[in-house]
Amino acid sequence: MKKTFTIVxxxxxxxxxxxxxxxxxxxxxxxxxxxxxxxxxANPLTNTEVISGLRxxxxxxxxxxxxxxxxxxxxxxxxxxxxxxxxxxxxxKEKALDLGLDGQVEKFETTLNRxxxxxxxxxxxxxxxxxxxxxxxxxxxxxxxxxxxxxxxxKQQTKDQLKEAFLPKVKVAISNVKLTDYxxxxxxxxxxxxxxTGGQKLNPDLDQFVTEKAIEGLFHMVxxxxxxxxxxxxxxxxxxxxxxxxxxxx
Length: 250
Fold this sequence. Notes:
By secondary structure, the protein is mostly helical. The chain has two domains: 1-44, no CATH class; 48-246, no CATH class. The chain has ten helices and no strands. The protein has helices at 2-33, 47-69, 90-98, 102-119, 123-132, 136-143, 149-176, 179-197, 206-231, 239-246. Helix 2 packs across helix 6, helix 4 (102-119) packs across helix 7 and helix 4 (102-119) crosses helix 8 (179-197). The longest helix is centred in the N-terminal third of the chain and has 32 residues, at 2-33. It is elongated and about 75 Å long.
């Protein structure tokens, strides 16, 4: 009788311990995988889903960004990323306006943006290669990194390649739209005035300026797309995006 009681009592302890462990595991999954107030402990996110979801989000973001910046007026009519007159040469602009060259200043700024729009066409394939090379570690860092984390990843992976790819396009675009035809009269008149007044002459590197501003504007648009998917459930246009980014909505 004593032996039977011991066996029954031991069995009770074992099964009770199992229940405690299972309950703890289920509770942990609920915390990790909860989204929009509903638990997904029965079907937790897998590593594959996280990576696939992030690749999908980035693909949508970059495709929209490149499409919207590489069309005519993609930069020029977007006040958030429109390329201004080079800040280092703002005195040139002021002098040109004083000399009545308003039309040339406007044409110059328009053609700066046309060059940026043309260069942006080169970005898509570079971004896609970076996404394909995303590791599991990259994926979880991006998912949990908050606003702009995916864009920061792309910057680290692609900025040098983008500069390399953009610069020749910018040079061709500047040549095609005869940007120097507008720039040279401005800089010539300005430097002539500086000769007379003893001021400092300027000769900004337009190719470099347009390249850097085009890349900066493109990343600005990518980050907007990324944050939209992170923050707005309606922007998660597939079940996978809903599942992956919904897991962050605690």
